[in-house]
Design a protein that fits this description.
Length: 75
């Protein structure tokens, strides 16, 4: 199923193809249960997308860090 979600990070409307049925998706939307309990077969990236609209690329671009050495010997 192709699902559209608005990213809470960028405001972009993103799409992702996720292997869920209409019934499963409706159950998730109407549930107060944790998403991993309602849709246990989805990947972490797919669950994050359903919750927040954040794609894996947006996540990596926002939360990737560059290591900087403060050791004078390595400079």
């Amino acid at each position: 199923m192709r699902i559209l979600r608005k990213s809470v990070l960028t405001g972009n409307v993103n799409t992702m193809d996720i292997n869920v049925t209409d019934e499963q998706f409706t159950k998730y939307l109407g549930s107060n249960e944790c998403i991993q309990n309602v849709l246990p077969d989805l990947s972490v990236d797919e669950r994050e997308f359903l919750i927040s609209g954040i794609t894996p690329d947006e996540w990596d671009n926002t939360f990737s860090f560059t290591t900087i050495s403060l050791d004078a010997e390595e400079a």
